[in-house]
């Protein structure tokens, strides 16, 4: 995904909710020149953060109870309704609706957008650390994200 902007979504003080941010930071350390943004508050400013990018990959936490911790799910608009804790919803804004709004008003939003949710253990407890379970899974999650986003099959 050369030329892709990687956007890590989450909150660094809500333990596992920070997984998307941490994954993007790890990928950036491992891959020289990786384009990235960290977004802790999803609002209209996000449209301008990704404006003009040819390809965008969002990575965020999700807590569904349907998957084991560390499970990576690539989703699109049709799957959003499956989630109790919707990983693309912050303060009432749905990420897909936000992107559509940008397109509607002529802002250059990429057609090539991927969204990955990482099943977590706890995304509501105040902590600047991942839960021990997610810490142990983290290296494998980063490796799998690298495979999913940089290998073409």
Low-confidence stretches: 83-91
Q: Quick one: CATH superfamily?
A: HybD-like
The CATH architecture category equals 3-Layer(aba) Sandwich
Strand order of the largest sheet: 2-1-3-7-4
Give the SSE string. EHEHEEEEHEH
Helix percent reads 25-40%
Overall CATH class: Alpha Beta
Beta-strand percentage range: 15-25%
Features:
single chain, two-stranded antiparallel sheet, 5-stranded mixed β-sheet, alpha/beta, 153 residues, Rossmann fold
Folded structure, characterized:
The chain is of the alpha/beta class. It has a single domain, classed as 3-Layer(aba) Sandwich (Rossmann fold). It is built from four helices and seven strands, in the order βαβαββββαβα. Strands 2-1-3-7-4 form a five-stranded mixed β-sheet. α1 (19-30) links the parallel β1 (5-9) and β2.
SSE topology sketch:
Blueprint: E1 5-9, H1 19-30, E2 35-39, H2 45-50, E3 55-62, E4 72-75, E5 89-90, E6 93-94, H3 95-104, E7 112-119, H4 132-150
Parallel strand pairs: 1-2, 1-3, 3-7
Antiparallel strand pairs: 4-7, 5-6
Helix pairs in contact: 1-4
Structure at a glance:
The chain is an alpha/beta fold and 153 residues long. It contains four helices and seven strands. Helix 1 packs across helix 4.
